[in-house]
Amino acid sequence: MAHPHNEHGSEFRDRIDDLIDLEVHFKEQLSKQWVDVNDRLPEDGTDKSIYCLVVSKYDGIVVRPYNQYHKCWDDEDGDDHYCEPTDGKITHWMPLPEPPENNNNKSPKTT
Predict the structure, then answer these.
(1) Helix or strand or coil: residue 9?
(2) What's the start-to-end Cα distance of the chain, in Å?
(3) φ and ψ at 82, to 5 degrees?
């Protein structure tokens, strides 16, 4: 018969191991979504800006719009900040995730 403390300790360790496994899985899935700017840039067939999560050499991971009309990354003010999209200032991008569903189980409209 196991001592109750050991039984709870083992259960606690199992839960910690499960959380670590989930974290590793999440990081692996997230890393598969990053696109190297030298491989491909965002596009959807319009001239509108596409908001993306990007890896910026200077700012870390941030949200930036890719301006399809000018073929550049805009800064937070909408200025053409990174005019050469593959110059190394932004190295990778990924699409933003879908917004969460609201209480009526319908996705909010995005425009």
Answers:
(1) helix
(2) 62
(3) -110, 85
At 62-91, the pLDDT tens digits run: 899 998 988 888 877 777 666 676 677 889
Q: Does residue 106 lie in a domain region?
A: no
- Taking residue 91's Cβ as centre, other Cβ atoms within 10 Å add up to 15
My answer on whether 9 and 51 are in the same domain is no
60 and 27 in a common domain: no
Which pTM does this prediction carry? 0.58
Distance CA 106, CA 29 (A): 25
Is residue 110 one of the residues assigned to a domain?
no
Does 108 reside within a domain?
no
Tell me the sheet residues that pair with 93. 35, 54
